[in-house]
Specification:
heterodimer; A: alpha+beta; 3 domains; 9-stranded mixed sheet; 3-stranded antiparallel sheet; 15 helices; B: alpha/beta; Amidase signature (AS) enzymes; 11-stranded mixed sheet
């Protein structure tokens, strides 16, 4: 891949990016309480005594969340730390009821790992994972409910998050986008995070710095709370450009936290230096260190599903799917599940073509996800069968597909009802061909006098005569016989 | 009736069984004793009606022969245990209006066993203090004050718990102990108190001071009563991650065995601090003399890091407290000094809501955890804490229990100790066992030259409350302590 550079007035600059992905752990209940994690409940409906930090309340680790974190670590080829500690991160905020967030600081549950990101041209790059730690989410402050008061919703308070910290291995906005997509894809395969960015299940903080080729790392700025791949990419570009401009104007970059304003397309400082937090991390004395055995980790390892990289390889090697289609199909578990059902015992290449063109096109047009597809994988498979065995032509198949998408009917039913079965018998086709010839005697003369391009015209007329059902191959063959 | 209030739990249980009196009569007697001692200021919240109601329920169980272990036994609860529907203030203005809608595990265990709640007794604010004087509602007065005609401190933080039992106004009280908060007031008020092993009693529903040290325990007149109370209060609680998943032995069985043959008692030389009064030294010597008489081996031992225990404690406990008390911010419950800006709300609520000692400890705790100071204070304190634990581990290879004085002096006059450091010195003998999470008990063992109670402390191995109780009941048997009531 070509190196991504920012061209300043004076120099070219490389960018160095590290990402912190905050992924909400897919779990029924919170990290340290039994409250529901349901999205969209009424404000303060899912709040236990622990979540509201009532006096004397104590956190108890939700083991399922621990398993989910381990699973995520294994899925990112990372080291699982058999000893980890929960720390308190102390700061005051109205939606942080305890006055501290329980997080992991010096001893996270997951250590170093790697993830391979993919580019549309088939190229790949390895991005290092620094660590994954578990932490509680805070509640939500609502400032728009009352003219002078803020309201607090603690439904999210205590929900488990995994913070996945990358190494500063990312060197373009595109790589950052590919990285997030890959992390999201892996977590969704693992079932450890639903990856829903609109609902905030996956959020990103981005660390950006710029430097000239060969220079040491520059000073970085952190841009917080980005909730779409597009915003991440825009924020990186905007921030990197700002830094280049600062440097070229002779200013120093100050290490700080900034917010991205997508409307104005700018980043600006989040808080001033005087308000810089000293979080006073220390081990939470309410919780004992988390100690895991090899056996425990291995049991989880055994339960891991196939992951996108394996699936992509399988699609290319064993199903004849193109490299590009394979990466599209493998990105989402729901899509690859669909593909494997639809292609069972069939030509994988053909199924992949129908899936990635016709089905994706129709789903997109109707704003549907593959889980909501009106055409089941089995039905798509049958449709492909009818094409393969010559029952219908590829062109008719598109009409059948449209009808299936509309009515959810089986392809055989659509073909029967509409009489779309391909006409493949000479006895049925010859009368049609003779009709076309006798209606176009002048053209037949021209053809015979050397205007051979008229052959296509005759084919078209026969197809029209058969309402498109004629087997094109046979029409060709019979027409040639009749005309020559 | 006055006869009732001078009895022990075991005696009252016997009387109830024999129908000498009813649960209601017992409860009435203790209510009267509480009311006639109003000037001693035991209660933050006196729950007379609730007590009478619970007494009725107790009696009906006794009548139907379905009585439970503590049916008909009126007790007081330190105002640090959350009690459903009853004010729970931690003796602080900031929780002055707080009524929990939940019950702490330890108090629930007591109610499930039939105990009757007389009310919530005073303590130092958030259990931070050794004199009861940091309470927002005024200090409890030590019932022994009448001996010298001066207002004496009951000690702290569980001063109300020790005082109410000492005055014969409750058969038992719950306490909590972070650095000596059960043992020191028990010694000052001439009653018995045990801090069990860290993890023996659930901390769920107890307002936290320093989570790695806080532990609930009973204060009673006798060792037997403490054993009985501890049986009920103890037990694994899945709601407390630091609670020990261990069976509770029958502690009562450990008491009353007066043969100490083969028992090894350690006397730590580092507890002979300079300037220790001769009456304390005498008490200590008398104490191990008694144990020797019963067949125990007395062995001098060394706990070399003892002198670092107090400073270590006063780094770790405030550090945890500074974080534990962050939740009292005026946003969700408790006192609020309403302000337009969030930062002002915090500042004013906490400035008005907390007393000076609590503020002092929040500041110390915040300081020792701050960037740049963490290693020098908090991390170092954790290391020293480990050394102190290792000291004990080593000594407990050679001995079964350790005997020390509970406090360096008898109860002092209210208002006489203005300097925080000299106040902190009260905990010098009790803090090491707290840092090591070990069971430790104070038994009233004698009187000072001016007639005030003094206690001896027995420290045991982790989860070996049984040997602690065994030794304590021997001291009790030989001390023949002149209880006030």
């Amino acid at each position: 891949m070509e190196k991504f550079l920012i061209h300043g007035e004076k120099d070219d600059y490389e960018i160095v990016v590290g990402l912190e992905v905050h992924a909400q752990v897919n779990s029924q209940s919170k990290l340290f309480s039994g409250s529901s994690t349901n999205f969209g409940s009424k404000p303060n409906e899912n709040v236990s005594l622990v979540d509201a930090a009532m006096p004397g309340m104590l956190p108890v680790i939700n083991e399922f969340c621990i398993k989910q974190a381990i699973k995520s670590g294994l899925g990112l080829n990372a080291k699982i730390n058999k000893f980890s500690v929960f720390d308190r991160k102390n700061y005051f905020y109205a939606d942080l009821p305890q006055g501290y967030q329980i997080s992991q600081y010096s001893d996270p549950i997951v250590g170093e790992g790697t993830v391979e990101i993919n580019f549309p041209d088939g190229a790949t790059k390895k991005i290092g994972i620094e660590r994954i730690h578990l932490e509680q989410d805070a509640g939500k402050s609502l400032h728009d409910q009352h003219p002078s008061k803020s309201y607090i919703d603690l439904n999210r308070s205590g929900v488990a998050l995994m913070e996945i910290v990358s190494k500063p291995d990312i060197s373009s906005p595109e790589e950052a986008g590919a990285y997030i997509k890959k992390i999201r894809s892996i977590l969704r395969y693992l079932g450890t995070c639903d990856g829903n960015m609109e609902q905030g299940s996956l959020r990103c903080d981005v660390n950006v710095s710029v430097k000239k080729d060969g220079d040491p790392l520059g000073i970085r700025c952190e841009i917080k709370n980005l909730n779409s791949v597009r915003f991440v990419m825009q924020a990186i570009t905007t921030e990197a450009n700002r830094q280049v401009e600062e440097i070229e104007n002779g200013n120093e970059i100050i290490q700080e936290t900034r917010l991205f304003d997508a409307v104005k397309s700018e980043t600006r400082p989040m808080r001033s230096k005087e308000n810089a937090h000293d979080y006073r991390y220390f081990p939470d004395p309410d919780l004992i260190p988390l100690v895991l055995t090899d056996e425990y980790i291995n049991d989880i390892k055994k339960s891991l599903p196939s992951l996108p990289d394996q699936i992509r390889k399988n699609l290319v090697d064993n199903y004849g799917v193109s490299e590009y289609d394979a990466s599209v199909i493998s990105e989402e578990k729901e899509i690859s599940d669909y593909f494997f059902l639809a292609s069972k015992g069939r030509d994988g290449k053909l199924v992949s073509n129908w899936l990635t063109t016709e089905l994706f096109g129709s789903l997109n047009k109707n704003n549907l996800k593959i889980e909501d597809s009106p055409i089941s994988p089995e039905q798509l498979g049958e449709l492909v069968d009818f094409i393969s065995d010559g029952t219908i032509s590829g062109r008719i198949a598109k009409d059948v597909f449209a009808e299936m998408f509309e009515t959810k009917k089986n392809p055989s039913k659509v073909i029967d009802e509409k009489g779309l079965k391909q006409i493949s018998s000479s006895d049925d086709l010859i009368p049609m061909i003779e009709r076309v010839i006798s209606n176009n005697l002048d053209k037949v003369d021209e053809y015979k006098n050397g205007k051979e391009q008229l052959f296509g015209f005759f084919v078209g007329q026969v197809m029209k005569e058969s309402s498109g059902k004629a087997n094109p191959k046979l029409v060709n063959q019979l027409l040639k016989e009749k005309l020559n | 009736m006055s006869e009732i209030v001078s009895k022990t739990i075991l005696q009252i249980k016997e009387g109830l069984k024999k129908r000498e009196y009813s649960a209601l009569e017992v409860t009435d007697a203790f209510i009267s004793a509480s009311e006639s001692n109003k000037k001693l200021n035991f209660y933050n919240t006196f729950t007379k009606e609730k007590a009478l109601e619970m007494a009725k329920t107790s009696q009906s169980r006794i009548d139907s022969g379905e009585d439970k272990i503590l049916d008909g036994i009126p007790i007081a609860i330190k105002d640090l245990f959350c009690t459903e529907g009853t004010l729970t203030t931690a003796s602080s203005k900031i929780l002055g209006n707080f009524i929990p809608n939940y019950e702490s595990t330890v108090t629930q265990n007591l109610w499930d066993a039939g105990a009757i709640m007389l009310g919530k007794v005073g303590c130092d604010e958030f259990a931070m203090g050794s004199s009861n004087e940091t309470s927002f509602f005024g200090e409890v007065i030590n019932p022994w004050s009448k001996v010298i005609n001066k207002n004496l401190s009951p000690g702290g933080s569980s001063g109300g718990s020790a005082a109410v039992v000492s005055a014969g106004a409750a058969l038992a009280a719950t306490g909590t102990d972070t650095g000596g908060s059960i043992r020191q007031p028990a010694a000052f008020c001439g009653v018995t108190g045990i801090k069990p092993t860290y993890g023996r009693c659930s901390r769920w529903g107890i307002i936290a001071f320093a989570s790695s040290l806080d532990q609930a325990g009973p204060i009673t007149k006798t060792v037997n009563d403490s054993a009985l109370m501890l049986n009920v209060m103890s037990g694994f609680d899945p709601k407390d991650s630091t609670s020990a998943n261990k069976n509770t032995p029958d502690f009562l069985k450990a008491c009353g065995n007066f043969n100490l043959k083969n028992l090894k008692v350690g006397i730590p030389k580092e507890y002979q601090i300079s300037g220790m009064s001769s009456e304390i030294i005498n008490l200590w010597e008398t104490g191990y003399g008694w144990l020797k008489d019963r067949g125990a081996d007395i062995i001098e031992v060394s706990l070399p890091h003892t002198k670092y225990a107090l400073p270590t404690y006063y780094v770790i406990a405030p550090a945890e407290a500074s974080s534990n008390l962050a939740r009292y911010d005026g946003v969700k419950y408790g006192y609020r000094n309403s302000q337009n800006h969030l930062d002002d709300l915090y500042a004013n609520t906490r400035a008005d809501g907390f007393g000076n000692e609590v503020k002092r400890r929040i500041l110390i705790g915040t300081y020792v955890l701050s960037a740049g100071y963490y290693d020098a204070y908090y991390r170092k304190a954790q290391r020293v804490r480990n050394l102190i634990i290792q000291d004990f581990n080593k000594v407990f290879k050679d001995v079964d229990v350790i005997l020390t004085p509970t406090t360096p002096s008898a109860a002092f006059e209210v208002g006489s100790q203005q300097d925080p450091i000299s106040m902190y010195m009260n905990d010098v003998f009790t803090v090491p066992a707290s840092l090591a999470g070990l069971p430790a008990m104070s038994v009233p063992s004698g009187l000072s030259t001016n007639g005030l109670p003094l206690g001896l402390q027995i420290i045991g191995k982790q989860f070996d409350e049984e040997n602690v109780l065994k030794v304590a009941s021997n001291i009790e048997d030989q001390a023949k302590f002149p209880f006030l009531n």
